[in-house]
Design brief:
511 residues; mainly beta; Beta-galactosidase, Chain A, domain 5; Immunoglobulin-like; ten-stranded antiparallel beta sheet
Length: 511
């Protein structure tokens, strides 16, 4: 035994083990398990004057790109650091794993430039960092572009090659939309693994902590036309978790083609995402256009073995928005692809009222049907993609437009209390059909919604198929519809679903 041990020491001396290989996901998982056995302690807040900064003052604290981590090591990946302040109330611990071992990044004030000299003087020497940005030559070979940002509780944002910033993801969502209030567990520590000089992939570990749960995460990033994030996570609940949000996505929908335009606004649409797409385990694809409701809306879509879901930005033409600054036409879509069978559960869509475009008011996530008990690890894996609106790669026709109007006006109909709904389907198997094909719409009214008429016709102007519906909900009840296109018994499109609350501002009601 001693002889073998000595031989092992000799081998290790001659061929030292890389620290990145010694440090693993299980290392972080053990930290999370031990942390879950202790009472929760909220991270200490940074000085008050930093939290009192306004948005412009906070943005005037700028990280110098030539101070980026690994700038001298030949790696295509670099790291830019973000200070705490404004919304970001506490610092996080950031470690680096390289050939020399595991070591913490100390705060360096000289990494930043300050527009306000007085603010610079007040910055503590041990302030710490609130988060970080990963960069990579995504667009041009010698130009570093930001493609992932970790900042604020467990939020992180990503972009593909042709995107600007928009939708966010999170490590975990808890009780989102429930009357009891939402809990926001935070990433409190990160480990950044230094990539090799020719690496196309980078790895980050993260430790999550909150009053109800801890967790260990491993992220593998592959930037590109569509940026992929491979996620592995294990949760350690301190207590029973009621509404657990796995792979949560957070976005913004202010108004769009299927909602009234707020008074005074000139842009046709304003949103980061325009719909929720779900690939259920039963072979059905379903699309739900988003709305900005007058009051909180929560929708549950049952799944037996969900194959994927995401918030997409299908309106991807500049003419949909006409906004040269915000460029909503190139905001990223996001698609979640589970690994393994997640079992019975539901996709939850939370839509929160907003009176402006600065508030993220849309959340979507998968949740298991049963509450998650304490002291039992809960592990899951998935791949998250940021990129264009075709991330899902489905072969069926897609709902590309949804228009909703009064069913008692010229061009809409002559039935008081009814809605005229127009749904355009395009692409996939529909694109191969002659214009003379007898395409049928299968339309169902839910929750006592009456289907008065429906018909499908080929739209020569746009080269797609248009489904027109006149539907009337029960008095003071929401309009609820689902529809798809078929030829004979062959399904040609995804299933379009729609729910419009009774109070919506669309009907031209007379007093």
């Amino acid at each position: 035994m001693l002889k073998k041990f000595s031989g092992l020491l000799l081998i290790l001396f001659i061929f030292p083990v890389n620290a990145a290989e010694q440090f693993s996901f299980q290392t972080v998982a053990e930290k999370a398990r031990l942390l879950a056995a202790q009472p929760y302690q909220e991270p200490p807040s940074v000085p008050r004057f930093l939290l009192d900064l306004n948005y412009d003052q906070f943005k005037d604290i700028r990280f110098e790109p030539d101070k980026s981590l690994w700038r001298q090591h030949g790696s295509p990946f670099k790291v830019m650091l973000i200070p705490p302040g404004l919304f970001y109330r506490h610092a996080v611990r950031i470690n680096v794993i390289d050939i020399e071992g595991v070591h913490e990044l100390a705060f360096r004030k000289d990494y930043f430039t300050f527009a306000d000299p007085d603010l610079e003087r007040r910055i503590p020497p041990d302030l710490g960092y609130a988060g970080f940005e990963l960069t990579y030559p995504l667009i041009e070979p010698k130009v570093q572009s930001q493609f992932i940002v970790f900042l604020g509780v467990s939020y992180f944002r990503g972009v593909g090659k042709d995107n600007t910033w928009g939708i966010s993801s999170r490590g975990l969502a808890l009780d989102t939309g429930l009357p009891t209030g939402e809990e926001f567990p935070s990433f409190i520590e990160y480990w950044l693994v230094q990539p090799a000089g020719n690496a196309r992939e980078m790895m980050v570990y993260a430790l999550l902590d909150g009053p109800s749960v801890t967790g260990a995460y491993q992220f593998n990033f592959l930037p590109g036309q569509n940026t992929l994030v491979k996620v592995r996570a294990v949760l350690f609940p301190r207590k029973t978790l009621q509404l657990v949000g796995i792979a949560p996505l957070t976005s913004m929908f202010y108004y769009g083609e299927n909602t009234p335009r707020p008074k005074g606004h000139w842009r046709q649409q304003v949103h980061d995402s325009d719909g929720l797409l779900i690939e259920n385990g039963n072979g059905e694809w379903s699309w739900r256009p988003l709305i900005n409701p007058d009051s909180l809306e929560m929708d549950y879509f049952n799944t037996m073995d969900v194959q994927g879901f995401g918030l997409l930005q299908r309106n991807a033409a500049f003419t949909d928005y006409q906004d040269m600054s915000a460029r909503y036409d190139i905001r990223p879509s996001t698609w979640v692809k589970p690994e393994g069978n997640w079992g019975p559960g539901k996709i939850v869509l939370v839509q929160i009222p907003t009176d402006g475009e600065s508030n993220d008011n849309i959340v979507a996530f998968w949740s298991p049907n049963n509450p998650t008990p304490p002291q039992q690890p809960y592990e899951f894996r998935y791949t998250l993609a940021f990129g264009g609106p075709d991330l899902d790669q489905q072969s069926l026709g897609k709902s590309v437009n949804t228009f909703v109007g009064d069913g008692n006006v010229n061009g809409g109909g002559n039935l008081p209390g009814a809605y005229r709904v127009i749904v355009d389907f395009a692409g996939g198997s529909l694109a191969k059909l002659p214009a003379s094909t007898n395409v049928e719409g299968v339309v169902t009214g839910l929750n006592n919604t009456e289907i008065v008429e429906e018909f499908t016709e080929y739209n020569q102007a746009l080269g797609n198929w248009r489904l027109s519906i006149l539907a009337k909900p029960a008095e003071e009840q929401p309009l609820e519809l689902r529809a798809y296109l078929k030829v004979d018994q062959q399904t040609l499109s995804e299933t379009w679903t729609y729910r419009l609350p009774a109070k919506n501002g669309i009907l031209n009601l007379k007093e």
